[in-house]
Amino acid sequence: MTFLVLAVIVLFVLAGTRVMSIAALSAELRSSRKDETITDAENRNQGNMWVLFLIAFLGFCLWQFMAYKDKILPEAASAHGPEIDRLFNVTLALITLVFIGTHIVMIYQTYKYAGKKANRATYFAHSNKLELIWTVIPAIVLSGLIAYGLTVWNDVIYPGDKKAMVVELYAKQFDWTARYSGKDNQLGRYDFRSIGEGNDLGLLEDAKNDDDVLVKGEFHLIKGEPVQFKFRSRDVIHSAFMPHFRAQMNCVPGMETMFEFTPTITTAEMRTKLNNPKFNYILLCNKICGATHFNMQMDIVVDTKEEFNKWMAEQKTWAQTQSAAKQTAAANVNVTENTSAN
Ligand SMILES: [Cu+2]
After folding, report:
1. What is the per-residue pLDDT across 165-211, written as a single tens digit (0 to 9) for each?
2. What spacing in Å lies between the alpha carbon of 169 and ligand 1's midpoint?
3. How far is ligand 1, taken at its centre, from the CA of residue 298, in Å?
4. What are 117-137's pLDDT values in tens digits?
């Protein structure tokens, strides 16, 4: 099927070039014109057509903007989110202005100065005034934008000193594990050499690990309470992207990265706001990290404190998982011994 489609495309291109060369030949035969000189009328015509193109093009851009408006992210669901959105909107407004302005100026030139036989071009090699204008204005605007961006980043990355719940997000090809630090709010030690069957994260024998809770597929956060994420990766660079909370951080093998934020809207509230009972917050991998990168995601549920505590009570701690695994292993050994005795 793919081959057929490709064959059809190639044949179309070949047929197209044939038709074009035939058209060119017949035009030459029919033509009474002896030279290639473009007339003033033709130039005027081109100038007018550029204006039509400008209107159609800007109209198309506006249409796209309106048509895809509902595809952009909903209201930010984190405390720092509105600040990121403001920065985004200011940048977008600026580049939209420049985009429209440069197109209008450019096409106005082709319209106003459409070729005329009588026209003579002005020649000048250098203009200090022009150089100054197009260097100083962008420099000022861009410096302002960068200063604003750095200020926002500073606010976002160094949040208040309210004690945050520590959660580790562990990335590997191709899934995520969330590790809650438990009652002590401390993540236990790990070593990559301990990674193995039943120990994806390489956790070590450490009392701080005992109350840690590991979950996959979905993890929960509390509305109004800060959460400090610590990111790790086993293999390649992944990127933890939580778009609804305006949060993203790289997960780099061999080092720990961090991001802290406070969710402000529960999943239930957001479902009502968006009038979409199926809505879920999401954690995505935002680095093309391999074959099934597209599927590397986890749902995020923002709960009230009570809902969260109820959910957390249902989860098994690392110590519980470990002792269950030991019991299963012991049972298996018994079975093997019994079988060999028989
Ligand atoms: Cu990934």
Report:
1. 999 999 999 999 999 998 888 888 888 888 888 888 888 888 888 88
2. 12
3. 12
4. 888 888 889 999 999 999 999
Q: How far is ligand 1, taken at its centre, from the CA of residue 78, in Å? A: 23
Residue by residue, what is the 3-state secondary structure of the chain? CHHHHHHHHHHHHHHHHHHHHHHHHHHHHHCCCCCCCCCHHHHHHHHHHHHHHHHHHHHHHHHHHHHCHHHCCCCCCECCHHHHHHHHHHHHHHHHHHHHHHHHHHHHHHHHCCCCCCCCCCCCCCCHHHHHHHHHHHHHHHHHHHHHHHHHHHHHHCCCCCCCEEEEEEEECCEEEEEECCCCCCCCCECHHHCECCECCCECCCHHHHCCEEECCEEEEECCCCEEEEEEECCCCEEEEEHHHCEEEEECECCCEEEEECECCCHHHHHHHHCCCCCCEEEEECCCCCCCHHHCEEEEEEECHHHHHHHHHCCCEHHHHHHHHHHHHHHHHHHHHHHHHC
Distance CA 340, CA 189 (A): 39
Using the mean position of ligand 1's atoms as its centre, give its distance from the Cα of residue 201 in Å. 16
Q: Which residues surround ligand 1, an ion (CB under 5 A)?
A: 238, 285, 289, 296
CATH architecture of the domain formed by 165-316: Sandwich (2.60)
- pLDDT tens digits along 135-147: 999 999 999 999 9
**Spacing, Cα 248 to ligand 1 middle (Å):** 13
Tens-digit pLDDT profile for residues 210-256: 888 899 999 999 999 999 999 999 999 999 999 999 999 999 999 99
Domain boundaries, the chain: 39-116+131-158, 165-316
Q: In what order do the strands lie in the sheet with 213-215?
A: 213-215, 175-180, 165-172, 227-233, 257-261
Distance 283 CA to ligand 1 centre (A): 11
CA of 242 to the centre of ligand 1 (A): 13
CA–centroid distance, 256 to ligand 1, in Å, is 16
- Give me ligand 1 centre to Cα 11, in Å: 40
